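USER:
Before I trust my own judgement here, I would like a peer's view. Write it directly below this note and I will take it from there.

ASSISTANT:
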Amino acid sequence: MPSAEKSDYYELLGVARAATPDEIKRAYKQQALKHHPDKNPDDKDAEEQFKRVSEAYAVLSDADKRRRYDQLGHAAFDPARGGTGFDAADFAGIGEILEGFLDDMFGRRGAANRSPKDLRYNLELSFEEAALGSERPIEYERHELCTHCKGTRAEPGATQVECPACRGRGEVRFQRGFFATSRPCFTCEGNGVRAEARCTRCAGRGSVARVQSLSVKIPAGVEDGAVRTLSGMGEETPVGTGDLHVHVKVKSHSLFTREGADILCDVPVSFPQAALGANLEVPTLEGKVSMRLPPGTQSGKVFRLRGKGLPVFGGYGKGDELVKVIVEVPAQLTARQRELLEELSREMGEGAHPQQQTFLDKLRGLFD
């Protein structure tokens, strides 16, 4: 077909010319599912439409090809009119894209989906639960084999015949332009055979959804983003059972932050405490402890409390707690307080601030 007769790619996908990549992807997904050959056996019009929308997506999903198409239209890819044409590389990624898209059409059905399927569970923990370890009950839904049909989807004793659509192969092959792929047969759902009577307990699905309750042990020191895998607790299929992957999300703490097995805590102190020294009450994961603040402590000084951190995940020992002292300057002063501070400043003189004096000397040397 001459390029001038081709439908506009944006119109084929039903999107505006200013559509975002995500909008184009969603539109292609809808069109691909609607016109896929497996869903429309022996329908040549649907097959041709599927080819056209796939070509449209191959162009509009690529930033460079889309720019050329916006400038020149179909002529950008028509060799007879000076275009670059298409080759296999232009369609190399469509097959993988369809693999993800068409799972929505077949759901849990089909030969490709009869293999054990893993599940994911997101588990949110408090900082303390992750640090000290815990055991949490969880509930999630998983599919188990129907006990009536044993996953065959057929009523026990029902006659099964070869699927006429795929001739017993369980999959349908098709070719679109430069790539070929296959999908589980939509008619027999990838089994290769069709039963005269579907299972009455599971309505021919082969599995039933049940709520599973478990207790998950969280080891001490587990980090945010860690994954705990529970073998055999995923989806159940005729050929095996998948796993359950528990993804850990650790909530932030109001006082502590974490660096590996160490925890960090900022402790505000007053100027008199920093200057004269003081005994401070410092929070730890095990409760409050007393820490001696020596006289003359500077703001930003870090003190290490040995063994007050987190257990080393997968190892031995514990980290430390790093206490950072922040000297707090009063935001408001009474007249008497200001008078006393001014008197103190005159009494102390410049010699009481050696770091400030060193800085001023360096500053003068820089500009002299």
About this structure: The radius of gyration is 34 Å. Residues 44-60 form the longest helix (17 residues). Residues 3-106 form a domain with the Helix Hairpins fold (CATH 1.10.287.110).
